[in-house]
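Re: weekly structure request thread

Next one in the queue (94 aa):
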Amino acid sequence: MEIKQINDIKRGYFEAVEDGKEAGKMTYTWAGDDKFIIDHTEVSEDFAGKGVGKKLLMAVVDYARNNNLKIIPLCPFAKSVFDKTEEIRDVLFS
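Done, posted below.
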């Protein structure tokens, strides 16, 4: 599974693609220069239950760590993963 990032000045998304099919997408909106809001996660029905959402979130966390950014998880899925996974909370905006 390949995860690509598309980013512009105000918004962006991470997209998971497998065999040419979109498996899922996690969208975000910039909230200043050093933080962004995860606002939506969707996974294609064909890929339900295969951990696509978590793979997307881990790619987002890696991006935040590599660029000294903080995340505000307004998306219920992303928030639930942050709530359950202590080792990724270093990128949470507080």
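The chain is about 25% helix and 40% strand. Residues 52-66 form the longest helix (15 residues).
Next request, please.
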